[in-house]
């Protein structure tokens, strides 16, 4: 039975890629050194998979920033505004153009905004959204995929399998930037370029090519389904002698099953972790010439594979198709997992026995193949690990379960409706029109990061560490007072990450030292692992928020992360419904909210940056998710007084299809990302006549460029044309942790100036 992998983490076991990219952006290393680091990571990844015995090993799954952006570069989908990066700046090359598209470009006399970024389906990975125009042309414009295949082929031979984002998903995941056309209609222009790419790979020696089509698990229109048929029949007619594998993941094919199994390709991959129930229908409809790749090892979570469960699926497929037509694989790319459990030495041994990272998941794929050939010892060891987890007292806490069971509707609602609360809050705070604030974090400089590192090593006492954090907090407060921000934040210098910080203080969470996962570009996160029932043993933020509030006469926001975001940005236990875990976290955050209010904090932000991200891909499944996700948020804020103002924050999401549920969250103020989309996302709130207050972001914090005051005023004027001015706030798109202080200060000063100007214009 053949085995394969769909993709592997590309950041390097010690985040080498992150460090190299950031050094390149800072001008500290050149392109040769950047490429050397990338080459080393790729070769190590290939060798690891080869040593494990994986049959088909992906290449071109490596990316300096994002695989969708790689496709835009390969296909020549480069917005015209980036041309000066190459034509007007001597010495710039393709990689500089590439990074300009991802991050913007503000030097050499140029000021170019970055491309829009959004979540990759329902993950916390972000991709750069392709931009299409009516007359869009396509052409092979990059050699990366070909060079990478040649390098992989030298090491792997016929095992090397180039990976490309499929043509239909590439179009569907992009956006039209002009009126009067639909991007899916570009398929006839796009497909010939795919044919050329695949034929070039074939001439270089490729036997298999993987085409990722995640959009096959979405609700598709008739035109979109026709596009799949058209694209793959054209590719089949234009390509011969290479085996095409179409990969789907993250959900079931459902009504697209007939379409998918009849595409003229050699193999189809399906996700049997997220949607095991789809196997029966696929097997009932699969034609005799199609191989089936069964994704039975979870590519998005860290739990050890249950071999009994996986083998039931594998054996069912083998019984219908025969072993030679079944391929064992992970559910999706392992990009979404930490790299290697062997790098972790401090995990509780009992819990460690339940966990597998990307490197161990390769072993699981290989071991499943060995078990089908009679290795019962591997199966017995796996059974013991599964039983240990099911029966462990570290997982199950009856007091937590009882408290969740006792939640009532009164726990999920504020005392008064928003109009009543708004009047009380306006009277209490007396803010000007367009009040200014930031989302919470300020730049975490190397000095700040070193403080935590030195504390962990024992080079600093806790007293010395806290003294240094206090000084950084006071400096941030004084600067905010100086420039005139209305609602201050303390900067979160004591926090390593907006989820990890809370998880470290909650029972039921496990932490790693090297469990890094790419979020976007050079941004990596270290998600905690929720292994058991969750509770809050003590205050988490009160000490630092209360300290900050005592340093100023202005309002100081308390900053918390909401239950759904903690859920989404953690590796969640898979032995109970996610909504139960969400309610456990919600009760813990509710306790913290009440403690902050008791400490005198009257503005409390409960970030739900990931609530849109958790939305099921299929519309039929969304109402249930939205009901429990909104309810979890309302539990966190349901106990505070009307005069206490509850904020929330959401970033990099489309809101049109969930706007009613955002309103149902009933936050007094919501802040959202809108700068990259030029306030386009705000239209959903306008059409809905969103009743509560809102802060549309005017500063793109995922780019190093500093927007001018006039640019921000223009955005705010556009916002004021859509929503009542008395309901509008002024803020950046997101937290500022990843930025540098000079650009942050310049941008926030411009933001405050923009607020003053718009008050004069509107007021």
UniProtKB/TrEMBL annotation:
One of its GO terms (biological process) is methionine biosynthetic process. Residues 448-482 form a coiled coil. Gene3D superfamilies: 3.20.20.210. InterPro entries: Cbl-indep_Met_Synth_N, Cobalamin-indep_Met_synthase, Met_Synth_C/arc, UROD/MetE-like_sf. Zn(2+) binds at residues 649, 651, 673, 734. It comes from the Bacteria. Binds 2 Zn(2+) ions per subunit. Binds 1 zinc ion per subunit. The keyword Cell inner membrane does not apply. 5-methyltetrahydropteroyltri-L-glutamate binds at residues 18, 119, 124, 523-524, 569, 613. The keyword Repeat applies. GO terms for molecular function: 5-methyltetrahydropteroyltriglutamate-homocysteine S-methyltransferase activity; zinc ion binding. The active site is at residue 702. Its EC number is 2.1.1.14. Residues 3-320 form the Cobalamin-independent methionine synthase MetE N-terminal domain. It catalyses: 5-methyltetrahydropteroyltri-L-glutamate + L-homocysteine = tetrahydropteroyltri-L-glutamate + L-methionine. L-homocysteine binds at residues 439-441, 492, 607. Keywords: Amino-acid biosynthesis, Coiled coil, Metal-binding, Methionine biosynthesis, Methyltransferase, Repeat, Transferase, Zinc. Transmembrane segments: none annotated. L-methionine binds at residues 439-441, 492, 607. Its cofactor is Zn(2+). Pathway: Amino-acid biosynthesis; L-methionine biosynthesis via de novo pathway; L-methionine from L-homocysteine (MetE route): step 1/1. Pfam families: Meth_synt_1 (PF08267), Meth_synt_2 (PF01717). Belongs to the vitamin-B12 independent methionine synthase family. Catalyzes the transfer of a methyl group from 5-methyltetrahydrofolate to homocysteine resulting in methionine formation. HAMAP family: Meth_synth. This is 5-methyltetrahydropteroyltriglutamate--homocysteine methyltransferase.
